[in-house]
Amino acid sequence: MKSIILKPYQNEFLGHMKNRVVMSAMSRSFSDKNHLCTDEIMKYYELRAKNNMALIITEGVVIHPSADGYNNVPHMWNNNQSESWKKTTTAVHKFNTKIFCQLWHCGRISHQDYTGGIPPVSSTDKAAEGINRQNNKPYSIPHKLTKKEILEVYDMFIKSGELAIKAGFDGLELHFGHGYLVDQFLDSRINDRTDEYGGSIENRCRFAIELTKLMITKFGPNKIIIRISPSRDMGGIYDWPNLNEMINYIIPELNKIGLRMLDISCARANYFETSGRIIRTVRKIWPYVIIGGASLTINEAEEEIKNNYLDMITWGRYILANPDFVNKIEHNIKLIEFDRDMLNRLE
Ligand SMILES: Cc1cc2nc3c(=O)[nH]c(=O)nc-3n(C[C@H](O)[C@H](O)[C@H](O)COP(=O)(O)O)c2cc1C
Predict the structure, then answer these.
(1) Does residue 233 have a pLDDT over 90?
(2) 131-132 and 137-138 strand pairing
(3) What residue ranges line ligand 1, CB within 6 angstroms?
(4) Which CATH number is associated with domain 9-344?
């Protein structure tokens, strides 16, 4: 009998889905100097669509030059960048696979080498600890966003979203996790503001909620997924401070403003110890779509669906290593394990 993971189903917001397999966002750093999507990138996504992924979330796509922090990642703030993705969205749609563009603002996880010489921005003016492995320099001291600049950042997200939709994407995933800009507002250990965007839980969540509300109003609930990472491992297991209070505040607020799709990530941690644990709490107060996972076995993924914790399952590294992932799980063929050398090639 076919696994529930592989059976088609109707998702209330995403429409008809070939199955429940989602390729999760993975930065690959193969964009060109103008931050365009290349033919090589197109072929990489096309191959996964051809091999029956239901939904592809692209690598993080930077919304504005001031939002970058990485080598050779794609951007989405001008018409050429938007045009450059059209071949990819068309190629993916040929196989009835849906594709969402992940919109990304790195905030202070950056260096001014990547932001055109100006300091990156954040909820704080304190630099991130450690070395930026992209250029082996310490992270730059960020500029703390003023209230007027916060509105400008919202506008960057909207403009970038419009360009992505023009390029043919089915929707947008907003990256609110993994320590990047929006997470820098959520996190009380980073956010040291004393205005209405810092301090209390309500204030720290304000940036995320205002931005989501604008995006939902502009694009509609079928086109917006929010990716959060309340518990994750990025150089050590980490939970949002005041985890339960944060969840009990932000999830109902996102519901109230009309959000319907959440992607709950744990970066690269053990799912059950991190996001899987959070999802069990979130499910009690969130009746809509939850996407999640991290290298789950097929049995584990099936259980998560059957127990109504997840609606669709994300896989990252397995899909990177196995473009024919769906076929392999259908026929019980052993998966190739990811190894870091694979990051040097795009295939
Ligand atoms: C090479 C690589 C790049 C990644 N880039 C992103 C990214 O751009 N945006 C994002 O939200 N997550 C990113 N992630 C995290 C993945 O989306 C995923 O959550 C993580 O790999 C755990 O899933 P897995 O165990 O199935 O790989 C990346 C992961 C890898 C391995």
Answers:
(1) no
(2) antiparallel
(3) 24-27, 59-60, 102, 175, 178, 227, 265, 267-268, 294-295, 315-318, 343
(4) 3.20.20.70
How far apart CA 315 and CA 292 sit, in angstroms, is 8
**Nearest atom of ligand 1 to the alpha carbon of 173:** 11
CA end-to-end span of the chain, whole Å? 32
- In the set 44, 114, 139, 180, the catalytic residue is 180
Comparing CA positions, the residue from 157, 210, 226, 252 lying closest to residue 13 is: 226
The domain locations on the chain are 9-344
Three-class secondary structure assignment of 114-134: CCCCCCCEECCCCCCCCEECC
pLDDT score recorded for residue 334? 96
The yes-or-no answer on residue 154 being catalytic is: no
Ligand 1 centroid–CA 307 distance in Å is 25
Residue 214, φ and ψ in degrees, nearest 5: -60, -40
Burial class from Cβ neighbours inside 10 Å (0-12, 13-18, 19+) for residue 212 reads buried
Among the residue ranges 89-93, 113-117, 322-326, the one predicted with the least confidence is 113-117
- Supply the pLDDT for residue 1: 81
* Residues 244-261, mean pLDDT to the nearest whole number: 98
Q: Ligand 1 centre from 22 Cα, in Å?
A: 12
Place of tokens 């965007």: 197
Q: What is the pTM of this model?
A: 0.98
Nearest-CA residue for atom 14 of ligand 1: 26
47-86 exposure pattern, b = at least 16 Cβ within 10 A, e = fewer: ebbbbbbbbbbbbbbbbbebbbbbeebbbbbbeebbebbe
> Candidates 102, 229, 268, 347: which one to mutate for ligand 1, based on the most atoms within 8 Å of Cβ?
268
Ligand 1 atom at shortest distance from the alpha carbon of 73: 8
| Residue of 23, 24, 317 to mutate, ligand 1, most atoms within 8 A of C-beta | 24
pLDDT at 282: 98
- pLDDT attached to residue 200: 97
Of 105, 28, 36, residue with least CA distance to 74:
36
